[in-house]
Design goal:
- It is a single chain.
- By secondary structure, the chain is mainly α.
- The protein has 14 helices and no strands.
- The protein is globular.
- InterPro entries: Haem_peroxidase (IPR002016), Haem_peroxidase_sf (IPR010255), Peroxidase_pln (IPR000823), Peroxidases_AS (IPR019794), Secretory_peroxidase (IPR033905).
- Pfam families: peroxidase.
């Protein structure tokens, strides 16, 4: 997909920002939470993300995926950032996560500008938004006011959405977080937008219709090859945030089982088709709906008010 034109970018910014600021409050969060206590908070986070992105563009999808993994375990409370021998970081689904240094750098600068004010959970939510914007994706207003959790256990990450989940299991996991099937389809590309380790089993068992695609992937990542190798999983535009992911699903090029089944299932296929703008169906604008779903996800089980804390270091409780 071609890069977003200036007018389309402005359209996304205005529409998604209006949606977020108009109704995106949840459990104590609101847009502009730091306007008085730390007015440069968002600018500082954005600057840090841009700096890291300029030297390593692959860090952007890494931050986005980390926010997703954080919100699905104990809510969006930065528990994914805590160090420890049995913390969430050590769980198998989280071992390949990247972008921790981006959050740490932003936190260090914010502690100088506004000591003890901005939570690590909010930094991660803002950085996820900025990581999308810096890759020519949409921009949305992020409600802030989250507080940081004190509990981080690898065992609690067992129910994260997995690469081999069926549609029914995925819908159940999203429903448990107050998210629906449209949110699932809008956010499912987070795994594909990321440059992650290609799991051979996922390719081997995927429900593909493009017979030539699987051999290409297996050649890139053979069964007994280098397990640490990173490959682009979004064919066509791996370093750009766009809706090409849905075209891949339609063409039988969904890499992970959890993605391929979205096209195989009649219910979610209809949503994929709406993101693709199939004639005869009410279309869904990907950038707008992605921003809307990110706001919803970012308000999952957040801690606010007297709950949690504002960590001095994102890697350790106070």
């Amino acid at each position: 997909m071609a890069k977003l034109g200036r007018n389309m970018v402005l359209f996304f910014v205005v529409w998604v920002a209006a949606v977020a600021s108009g109704g995106a409050r949840g459990q104590g969060t609101r847009v502009g939470f730091y306007s008085r206590t730390c007015p440069r908070a968002e600018a500082i986070v954005r600057s840090v993300v841009q700096s890291h992105f300029s030297s390593d563009p692959s860090i952007a999808p890494g931050i986005l995926r980390m926010h997703f993994h954080d919100c699905f375990v104990h809510g969006c409370d930065a528990s994914i950032l805590l160090d420890g021998p049995t913390s969430e970081k050590t769980a198998p689904p989280n071992r390949q996560l990247r972008g921790f240094d981006v959050v740490d750098d932003a936190k260090a600068q914010l502690e100088v500008a506004c000591p003890g004010v901005v939570s690590c959970a909010d930094i991660l939510a803002l950085a996820a938004r900025d990581s999308v914007a810096v890759t020519n994706g949409p921009f949305w207003s992020v409600p802030t006011g989250r507080r940081d959790g004190r509990v981080s256990l690898a065992s609690d990450a067992a129910n994260l959405p997995a690469f081999n989940d069926s549609v029914a299991v995925q819908i159940r996991k999203y429903d448990e977080k107050g998210l629906n099937a449209q949110d699932l389809v809008a956010l499912s590309g987070i795994l594909i937008q990321s440059l992650i380790t290609l799991i051979y089993r996922a390719v081997h068992n995927a429900c593909q219709s493009d017979a030539a695609f699987v051999p290409q992937l297996r050649a890139l990542c053979p069964q007994n090859g280098d397990g640490a190798r990173r490959v682009a999983m979004d064919t066509g535009s791996p370093n750009r945030f766009d809706a090409n992911y849905y075209g891949n699903l339609r063409s039988g090029r969904g890499v992970l089982e959890s993605d391929a089944v979205l096209w195989a299932d009649a219910g979610t296929r209809g949503l994929v088709q709406r993101f693709l703008g199939i004639r005869g169906l009410a279309g869904l604008t990907f950038g707008v709906e992605f921003g809307r779903s990110m706001v919803k996800m970012g308000n999952v089980e957040v801690k606010s008010g007297a709950a949690g804390e504002i960590r001095t270091l994102c890697t350790a409780v106070n």
